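User: My advisor, Dr. K., asked me to get a structural model of this assembly before our group meeting. I'm new to this, so sorry if the format is off. These are the inputs:
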Amino acid sequence: MSKKIALVAMVLVSVTAVSCGDGRTPLVIYSPHGRDLLQRAEEIFEAQNPSVDVRWLDMGSQDVFDRVRSERVNPQADVWYGGPSNLFARAAAESLLHAYRPVWADAVPERARGAGDFFFAVFETPLVIAFNSVALTRAEAPQDWDDVLRPEWNDKVVIRDPIASGTMRSIFGMIMQRSLRESGNTESGIAWLRRLDGQTREYPINPALLHQKLIRQEGLITLWGLPDILVESSKGRPLDYVLPTSGTPVIEDAIAVVRGTDNLAIAQRFVDWVGSVDAQLFAAREVFRLPSRTDLPEDSLPAWVLDVRSHLVVEEMDWLLLADSGAAWMNYWDRNIRGSGAPAD
Amino acid sequence: MKRRTGLILVGFLLWIVVYPIAIVILESFRDAEGWTVTPLIGFVREPSEWSALWNSVWISLASVVSAAVVGIPLAFVFEKLEFPGRRILGALVALPAVLPPLVGVIAFLFLYGESGFVARIITEVLDLDESPWRLRGAGAILLVHSYSMYVYFYLFTRAGLAKIDSSMTEAAQSLGSPGFSIFRRVTLPLLKPQLGAAALLAFMTSLGSFSAPYIFGGGFRVMTTRIVTSKLNGDMPAALIEATWLAAVALLGLVMFRRFSGSRSVAVMSKGMAARAATIRQPMARWGATTIGWLFAAFLLLPHITLVLVSFVPLNGWSTEILPSSYTIANYITLLHEPERLRPLWNSIWMAGVSTILVLTLSLWAAREIVQRKVRLRGTIESLLNVPWAVPGTVLAVALATMFSVSAPWVGRWVLVGTVVILPLAYFVRNIPVACGAVVAGLRQIDPSLSEAAASLGASKMRTLWRVTVPLIRPALLAGGALAFVTAAGDFVTSVVLYTFETRPVSIEILGALRAYDLGMAAAYGVVLMFVSAAAMVVGTRR
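Assistant: The format is fine. Below is the predicted structure of the whole assembly, which you can bring to the meeting.
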């Protein structure tokens, strides 16, 4: 009897212990940016704001959207940091975001500013064809999207499971958009994705598994965002990339304050910091993010930024179309294409 | 007075067990404008939905069969034959039970995956270019399921065999019945309730299984992964209708398995002894049995060993080598020293603890009602207690998330999403059948005259409960509590839908570590969880 009471008491004490922090105000961030960026961002921001305790949860950008939506009545996140701006546009349309115009709003180009000030892009993420640089040279790797469908890459492609990934959704969206532009319907896009599925060996459930499968040569090529590839290769991993010659989507990688946050002032301070010159340079130098700001002096930017900017062919994207039809396309893909594709002939 | 507590209990169970599912079903027929059957039609017309549903059903049935094929013979061997190491091996064989679903799946990935130990060794020995197999699709799911679920058949069959009176088989033997006939006509019918219970447990667990299809499924879709994908894709109506269908199938399965195993066990009223294990006398056979037994145990322990090994691998310490090249205890040091790393562990333990205490309280209450009440409400309460069986974890999570995201106290709905309450509550609901089943069974076996005697001596109700009833059914309470605790501490399916930063449990942190490809850290969490589960099991099976 007394043991049980002691147990209950212990549990109650521990619950209170857990719920009381160290007196700092917690700032909860949902983000797909990954540990490399988030851990450094936490350190730097906390050093500048000693009263704030930055807490981040790392997940796919589609996961973030889903969580923010399910927590609508009782928001747990204060800031949503990262993800394609079309996803943010959908969230804004569902009244999930809090409008805030950061102090750096005028330093980024028009395309980086979300309608109604609900979100602003802080990074630009070009999508690339990445490959294992031990197995292939840059010249041997596919140079453009259509090259990925060539027979020699059959069963050599690994792709991040696109359902949870904003990055992959953007690539699939580009394919569908091209199909609509060229023929007015989605047929050729669907056929393309089916052939890609035929080439694909596996759909890893997270980016880290994707990288590992490339590194271990379980697959040789993938389609992915540039920053992750640069981060991995800076750690000595055998990964390299090609900028597709026919053009590639550049994701406007955005940030927003979550509606209903109880830490509005701190959340806004964090958004202000992420777009500041210091934070943009930190992101470019340490974690290979392409800054959105156009007013950064060229000589302070690392060489890779200038290199990418000079070679990049930007594909015009109709993000509104993607926000509208993206979910239906992905649904169709998941139900009718995944696992059904014939290999290239 | 008694009547009223029974009604309160029924009301409570209706609210927490039936209401959330009813909400899911109703919501799947509603949209912004009002009632609609569009999602239903969409489901019925969609071939891929049917194939996912069919996959769920056949993989569950196949899991039951394969688990039975492994578990039942094993139980006979350990119960009927005596050979060196029988006792310790008998305990080791039950060890898959301490691997929580996600942890087990991860261990299999390290061990049998394309770049796992076994594949690497075979590739190296046979000098192949690439792994001889891929751990993917239905086969991989079945492998994991049979590994983790044969334990049900093994334990239940052994328990059944231990209770079978040897005079029954001896009688059949003296009547001239041949060995196999005795097995078929006497032993098997006596075991039917146990086998039915094990089959039901395995079927429901595989139907609700999420970790294995999520990690190994690939293009092979089952209903649980389907629901999560639909929700992730923002298609809530589809997720709800899929949840409804899965719940319907589960309910059907529940009814059918119950019918098969019969409502009551075959009455065996005698005072004979259970048969003693036969010692194998022939030395060769004896050694053969021992060797096979140990080899099998080693095979069963490989995932555990793998997990422990990988937990000593530093970050990025294992890429293309067969075995990791360097080992360190840094993962454990990090785990214990960084408060943010330790927190998920602590979360899992306190949330599982709270939910276990709650579910045991409920089970005591329910058991008293069932045992004391003569008719009517008893059946209702028993059925209600079993309803969570019919609700796969994913469906339950979606149901609770839907129910508790609206503030409407007058219809019993509060905003609990995003609070610390929701996860323990979900664990509590999931564990109602397990804990209550054990406690009700325990209470049935004790003589009501004991508590009546206490009452007639003037003991208050509480006093009688604490001093008479609880001590008498202590084994049942401990067993039910241990099972509930282990399930809650290792839960992944419901947690992944309902966690917050404050309450993220170990399973979510394991997934996070995997996302960062921190294999060692993921394994270290798995090892700690394994030991916590094992400790709970040791407490729970103490007689």
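One thing worth pointing out at the meeting: Chain A has two domains: 2-124+251-311, 125-250+314-337.

User: Perfect, thanks a lot.
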